[in-house]
């Protein structure tokens, strides 16, 4: 049953040291504010799950929250590499991070299997690839009807999933619009789900009957954080801050520059700063 | 200068390979420009699909990521990521997958994962994303990348996406029923796999490009097809379309160029 609370309270009561935590959003609706709150609260030894780690996990890994990373594309899309992740993998800074690497198809299927309550996902994939040789969680299964060999991976069942979404109604139902990505599956696959939203509305009158709505009883906590996806975006509210993604490359390239940026923009701030960060992006929607 | 750059020639040659009735899965980076030039010139009805779930998208500017808002706003429909990979890609509904590569070998195998050993990498690259299953589930695969000895290598360090393996009938032996890589478009040439060995062979040189220039930027001994031809130079329409698209894109992304 969804309870409205502050982001600080939603994070402190739902993610704990050692948890498997997913912060999802496929380019769109990435829960940056929630990740920053987890950084401020100093969570440790997390197994972080995310299809496209990008800036948000570069920050969490660089700040030492992650013990392990489960992912399928570790890049800053259209810009380049994730330099904090690379520093952790290549040099063990700030400490070594174990990685479990998949393809998008595998992760998408694994979240869906998690949402469906299945132990594993079965799909046609990984044929001829080296990942299948280095990741022991990529296995195969024989179709009992046709004899076809299919790929199998364990389902993803996070202790907690964080997503950002456009809006909640008073009851706590959550509406996700635009590139819905993996939001629904990531919430339904998790034991606990925390959603940050742009706003709360009275009801969802006028919304299409087939819209992506997560009923209030599938969500544990909702925090209202306008701009909470920045520099990702919220369709209908503000545009993606592509300049921030481009600028991140230089910030993340240097350990000291990174730490200074994190102190100034994350550790010394709170969730209220996000509304201001998207003010200029609202015109561009 | 002959009025166009080798990069423009590459993008335009890649665009020409797409047909009006293609359903094309667009990889991140260089393929995106080529696919949209095709849509804005000879293939107005082409269906462009990005892995964010946007089907039939028609962006006015090139997206920086595969999930920019404009892809969704201009799409025929936007589906979830599991649906994208299950129903549309795995379901066999995509005719062409268009991929870029960090490292490529002569049989069209792609590495975008690591340089060096996987567990102690020299350089950790982003990884596969959608590419491993794009490479196996699309009807055929086009690859576009700039030539360099670091890029076109004798042996790739990691098979992120399987092409033709060690050549010949490697795909059939693995049970893959799709064609795999059928075309490579670089900044210097057009390459097609030999029908038997599946080794990429140069079939056309871009205007002004020599065989030596192709060999100097390739890490394996290059084979040239007997009927080697010259790629037609970009037309005014093709060049204008590409340059206008890049200008709109640069303006939209704060003055910075997007691959």
Automatic annotation (TrEMBL), chain A:
Q: Which residues cross the membrane?
A: none
Please provide the record's keywords in A-Z order.
Transferase
Gene Ontology MF: a single term: transferase activity
Q: Which SMART domains match?
A: CoA_trans
> One Pfam family name from the record?
CoA_trans
* InterPro entries the UniProt entry points to: CoA_trans_fam_I (IPR004165), NagB/RpiA_transferase-like (IPR037171)
The record's listing under PANTHER family reads: ACETATE COA-TRANSFERASE YDIF, CHOLESTEROL RING-CLEAVING HYDROLASE IPDB SUBUNIT
Name-wise, this protein is Acyl CoA:acetate/3-ketoacid CoA transferase, alpha subunit
Automatic annotation (TrEMBL), chain B:
Q: Which residues form a coiled coil?
A: none
Q: Which domain of life is it from?
A: Bacteria
Keywords in alphabetical order:
Transferase
Q: What SUPFAM superfamilies has UniProt attached to this entry? A: NagB/RpiA/CoA transferase-like
MF-aspect GO terms: transferase activity
This protein's name:
Acyl CoA:acetate/3-ketoacid CoA transferase, beta subunit
Q: Which species expresses this protein natively?
A: Chelatococcus sambhunathii
| Taxonomic placement | Bacteria, Pseudomonadati, Pseudomonadota, Alphaproteobacteria, Hyphomicrobiales
């Amino acid at each position: 049953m969804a309870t409205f609370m502050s982001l600080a309270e939603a994070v402190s009561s739902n993610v704990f040291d050692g948890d498997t935590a997913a912060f999802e959003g496929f380019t769109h609706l990435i829960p940056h504010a929630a990740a920053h709150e987890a950084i401020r609260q100093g969570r440790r030894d997390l197994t972080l799950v995310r299809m496209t780690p990008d800036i948000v996990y570069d920050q969490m890994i660089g700040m030492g929250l992650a013990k392990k990373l489960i992912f399928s594309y570790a890049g800053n899309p259209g810009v380049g590499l994730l330099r904090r992740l690379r520093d952790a993998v290549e040099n063990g800074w700030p400490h070594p991070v174990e990685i479990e690497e998949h393809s998008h198809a595998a992760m998408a299927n694994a979240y869906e299997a998690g949402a469906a309550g299945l132990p594993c996902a079965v799909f046609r994939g990984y044929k001829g690839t080296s990942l299948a040789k280095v990741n022991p969680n990529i296995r195969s299964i024989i179709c009992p009807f046709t004899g076809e060999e299919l790929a199998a991976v364990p389902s993803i069942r996070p202790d907690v999933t964080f997503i950002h979404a456009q809006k909640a109604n008073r009851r706590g139902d959550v509406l996700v619009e635009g590139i819905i990505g993996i939001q629904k599956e990531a919430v339904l696959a998790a034991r606990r789900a925390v959603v940050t939203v742009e706003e709360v509305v009275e009801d969802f009158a006028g919304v299409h009957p087939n819209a992506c709505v997560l009923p209030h009883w599938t969500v544990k906590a909702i925090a209202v954080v306008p701009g909470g996806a920045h520099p990702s975006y919220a369709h209908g509210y503000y545009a993606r801050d592509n300049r921030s993604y481009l600028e991140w490359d230089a910030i993340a390239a240097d350990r000291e520059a990174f730490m200074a940026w994190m102190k100034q923009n994350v550790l010394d701030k709170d969730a209220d700063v996000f509304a201001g960060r998207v003010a200029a992006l609202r015109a561009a929607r | 200068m002959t009025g166009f750059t080798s990069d423009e020639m590459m993008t335009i040659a890649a665009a020409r390979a797409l047909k009006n009735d293609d359903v094309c899965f667009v990889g991140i980076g260089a393929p995106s420009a080529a696919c949209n030039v095709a849509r804005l010139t000879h293939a107005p009805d082409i269906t462009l699909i990005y892995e964010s779930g946007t089907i039939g998208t028609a962006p006015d500017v090139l997206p920086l990521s595969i999930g920019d808002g404009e892809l969704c706003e201009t799409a025929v429909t936007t589906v979830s990521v599991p649906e994208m990979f299950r129903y549309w890609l795995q379901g066999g509904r995509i005719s062409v997958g268009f991929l870029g590569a960090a490292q490529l070998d002569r049989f069209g195998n792609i590495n975008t994962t690591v340089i060096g050993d996987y567990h102690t990498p020299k350089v950790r690259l982003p990884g596969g994303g959608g590419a491993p299953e794009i490479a196996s589930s699309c009807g055929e695969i086009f690859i576009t990348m700039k030539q360099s000895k670091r890029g076109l290598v004798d042996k790739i360090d990691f098979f992120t996406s399987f092409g033709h393996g060690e050549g010949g009938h490697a795909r059939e032996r693995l049970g893959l029923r799709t064609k795999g890589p059928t075309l490579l478009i670089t900044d210097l040439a057009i390459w097609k796999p030999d029908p038997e060995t599946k080794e990429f062979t140069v079939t056309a040189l871009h205007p002004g490009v020599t065989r030596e220039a192709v060999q100097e930027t390739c890490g394996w001994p290059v084979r040239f097809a007997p009927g080697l031809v010259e790629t037609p130079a970009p037309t005014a329409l093709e060049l204008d379309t590409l340059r206008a698209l890049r200008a709109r894109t640069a303006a939209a992304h704060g003055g910075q160029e997007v691959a």
